[in-house]
Amino acid sequence: MPKDSGIGASSKRREDVRFLTGNGKYTDDINVAGQSYAHFVRSDVAHGRINSIDVSAAEAAPGVLKVFTAADFAEVGGVPCGWCVTDRHGNPMQEPKHPVLAEGKVRHVGDPYAVVVAESLSAARDAAELIEADIEELEAVIDMKAAVADGATKVHDDLTSNLCYDWGFVEENREAVDEAIKGAHHVTTLELTNNRLVANPMEPRVAVGEYDPWKDEHTLYTTSQNPHVIRLLMGAFVLGIPEHKLRVIAPDVGGGFGTKIFHYAEEAFCTFAAKALKRPVKWTSSRSEAFISDAHGRDHVTKIELAMDEEGKFLALRTDTYANMGAYLSTFAPSVPTWLHGTLMAGNYITPLIYVNVKAVFTNTVPVDAYRGAGRPEATFQLERVVDKAAREMGIDPVELRRRNFIDKSQFPYATPVAVEYDTGDYHATMDKLLEISDRDGFEARKAESAARGKLRGFGVAHYIEACGIAPSNLVGQLGARAGLYESATVRVNATGSISVMTGSHSHGQGHETSFAQVVADMLGIDEAQVDIVHGDTARTPMGMGTYGSRSIAVGGSAMVRATEKIIAKAKKVASHLMEASESDVEFANGQFTVAGTDKSVAWGDVCLAAYVPHNYPLEDIEPGLEETAFYDPANFTYPSGGYACEVEVDPETGQVEVLAFSAADDFGNVINPMIVEGQVHGGVAQGIGQALLENCVYDENGQLLTGSYMDYAMPRAYDVPMFTVDHSCQTPCTHNPLGVKGCGEAGAIGSPPAIVNAVIDALSGHGVEHIDMPLSPQRVWAAMHGKG
Amino acid sequence: MYAFDLVKPGTVAEAASALAGGEAQALGGGQTLIPTLKQRLADPGTLVSLSHIDEMKYVRESGGTVEIGGGTTHAMVAKAVADIYPGLADLAGRIGDPSVRNRGTIGGSLANNDPSACYPAGALGSGATIITDKREIAADDYFQGMFTTALDEGEIVTGVRFPIPEKAHYSKMPQPASRFPLVAVYVAKFADGVRVAVTGASEDGVFRWTEAEEALGANFSTDALGGLSASEDGMIADIHGTAAYRAHLIGVMTKRAVAEMS
Ligand SMILES: Cc1cc2nc3c(=O)[nH]c(=O)nc-3n(C[C@H](O)[C@H](O)[C@H](O)COP(=O)(O)OP(=O)(O)OC[C@H]3O[C@@H](n4cnc5c(N)ncnc54)[C@H](O)[C@@H]3O)c2cc1C
């Protein structure tokens, strides 16, 4: 029986009423009395030397308060990077300065070199046209391999080259892997590109800076997935504002997908300018601006080799990747192709020897950072593609080849050769479930039916693992993270028993206001409506690290459980006093405190009232009040896994791919709200379909963005996605967090691209096509079929 | 957007005088012009909205032709000519999305003559006549290359007269991002011959594929197209399709249109 409330119930998303009726309060809805408007003047060349910028005419234009350039930021820091990767030789990565406004050079189309602040946006835009910038165009560095060739033009003149780092993992295995590959029965090799993506959340970025000179207090409203992280990075590293004087508020946020994790120059600018001008300053990104200023995602070029014995057992894996960093290091950029990618190269398989090499490269393009899945989709894509290719080459069924190499459920906990230890999983179970719900057995008949209509039908599978719930702080500290990755929660019980939970997690579409409330209500045996979730404001919630890496329920939820446990412990003490019983005899269930073996009981609400109206209260033993805070730092990552299957039809005359069916059998451990979990998978798979078939961010050789609007950047639409068949009944709960949860936010985007591409390659199996790079657009599919790739 | 003045004439004559003088520009449904203004790629000073001119919104059938007012939206055309001229209704009903179809107009589309627009194929493929506030122009003379037409400065497309063919079909291969045609072909079969108009493919904008017209005129079947292939010379090449792919699609889309009509 499905539950109708609490953990495991598909409670309706309470936040949707305000979202769907247009009553959400987003950052752009915030207008502060006296606010002024910032317009960023952005480079239209990819690489150029700034000889001079004359702002005098612009400053004299009507309504203009001030025009800012790099000179105004001489006293402040650059936008910091939150992760330092150490290279193969033990040296720290090359880390260029990222000034708030371009200094000396512009380094990508969209790099801001001036900002006009005016009484209105149109006054600011009019004045911007009066700025005379003498920018001498330099050769643009776009292709990653050319960027690291000898004598290449440098993006940053003060670095030794365009190589950010050359990372090897596990470096000690390098030679053993080479040897194993040399001596293997069969080696399957695949070269591929993981396409560059623009996240395109529905809400573009916005920042409003406000300053109160009488209190010396700054407030920044911003579209962020993690307001505390912004406060820390901007306050401590850019502007030198102590935390108690800086409040960061991220109200309703209309989607993030990773690109709203990072600290951006526009946030620092609005905060800085509000003080400089003694006026609130607002900036709202246009969609065109988002394409050239939001951090992009993925953009890897990879060669992967898989060595096998006669039976198809995996012996060794070697992968070489060039990862695009863009022109500057965005907040978490260095960690994505390394620790979030290399550590997942074992996938669901026993592969004794693995070596991952990653060269991170600076180019004259927008910075690249985490995008839904971050590193794990890149690992999963190459692995699940090479396994599929290997199956074809070895003449083994692709499902069977995977099964032969799966880690068996009896082997958990399982330490991979790439530094992580999977706690639980049952990959055969998810594969079984997948084959059932996707009706693989009926595929041949469906294929024949398509063939009769002149269409090529294909079936593809992929099996993924991801590391979520990022992360044990002391582990990531050793790996180069410059911050801890715990989460916090304060559970504030009010006098009449209602509850406000202040969480450091942030919801920007995930539905925390519903699912987090379910957990607390379930633990206390009270109505979900009595619990409110408060997030997104550094002044209202304790220090937190925010939402990304599918960490909210696993880490933020665990903190909330710990704080609620403290509440229950204290409430039991109060109850024992009220019932004149020994504390150890007090039991708590369904919102009632009882004494074992007696008919004594006291209700939740009475205990809360007693705590706040302590007339009859053991003040000598316990403090009044009922409010507890917990910080939770996980012992390990969580490891969701699952099998995805895609069925496509290819039109051989046009190359058009249609996704006919998509099935997902996920193991997310315990599930709090099945409906929300399914929605997360739906959204993730839709984005995976976008990446696999439609989306592509393309620069020309001069660094001009060819896909700067929806005229050329193809987002998935409703008719591009089929009805999904999703299942999460295979559950191996996480062993190290109190809820046994693993996280589900990114899985869909991780597991789907290889399943889709495998399906298309299967459809084209009669045409000698071994690989097509994403997106599998009609043109590319047609060209591959006709040898015109 | 730059600041502009907006005038809302109620008649064609008033609109024509508001447009005389050069600095003003007509505003139809705004589905092309408004995005252009928002990007500050145009600074017309005055916009003359045609949306309030009732005499430009009509659909009239007479004697084997249907005449559509220049201010008629795509959605209205899709509905109003569904029985009279189903091939054209189908074309109109597949332009953009519902909000585009409920604002964008046939006059605006033909005046703009985007090399990937749908209506130019419908008009040229039907052998339509473009009616302006000053004259009538045969489609064969009207389309003069990418974003170029026979219209003079300030001239208003007040209507379009389509001869109704025996059958017609529009086959559209959408560009994955914009969903405008990557290549689309309009085939219309009349008692005295077949017209085949191609959009989305050529650097010169919409054009007639005369070889296919002749072949289909002699034998209206997909077999007649067997040996034909469109040349890739002058085809558009961009990230969505090479010239060779577009040339190939012309053949495929033409064949599919004919198959639908057979
Ligand atoms: C998301 C989207 C998708 C689209 N998809 C398609 C598609 O699939 N196929 C397609 O064909 N089109 C498509 N369009 C374009 C759409 O059909 C436009 O409506 C059309 O091209 C222009 O018509 P309009 O009435 O909006 O003209 P406007 O944008 O108002 O004007 C366009 C130009 O024509 C001039 N003009 C307008 N009306 C007249 C007139 N009566 N006489 C003389 N000049 C005039 C204007 O001055 C301007 O130069 C799409 C547009 C959008 C925004």
From TrEMBL, chain A:
GO terms for molecular function: carbon-monoxide oxygenase activity; iron ion binding. The keyword Oxidoreductase applies. Pfam families: Ald_Xan_dh_C, MoCoBD_1, MoCoBD_2. Signal peptide: none annotated. The keyword Cell membrane does not apply. Keywords: Molybdenum, Oxidoreductase. Residues 21-139 form the Aldehyde oxidase/xanthine dehydrogenase a/b hammerhead domain. Its EC number is 1.2.5.3. It comes from the Bacteria. This is Carbon monoxide dehydrogenase large chain. It comes from Pontivivens insulae. The gene is cutL_3.
UniProtKB/TrEMBL annotation, chain B:
Residues 1-167 form the FAD-binding PCMH-type domain. InterPro entries: CO_DH_flav_C, CO_DH_flav_C_dom_sf, Diverse_Substr_Oxidored, FAD-bd_PCMH, FAD-bd_PCMH-like_sf, FAD-bd_PCMH_sub1, FAD-bd_PCMH_sub2, Mopterin_DH_FAD-bd. It comes from the Bacteria. It is an enzyme of class 1 (oxidoreductase). Keywords: FAD, Flavoprotein, Oxidoreductase. One of its GO terms (molecular function) is carbon-monoxide oxygenase activity. Its EC number is 1.2.5.3. PROSITE patterns: FAD_PCMH. Pfam families: FAD_binding_5. PANTHER family: XANTHINE DEHYDROGENASE SUBUNIT C-RELATED. This is Carbon monoxide dehydrogenase medium chain.
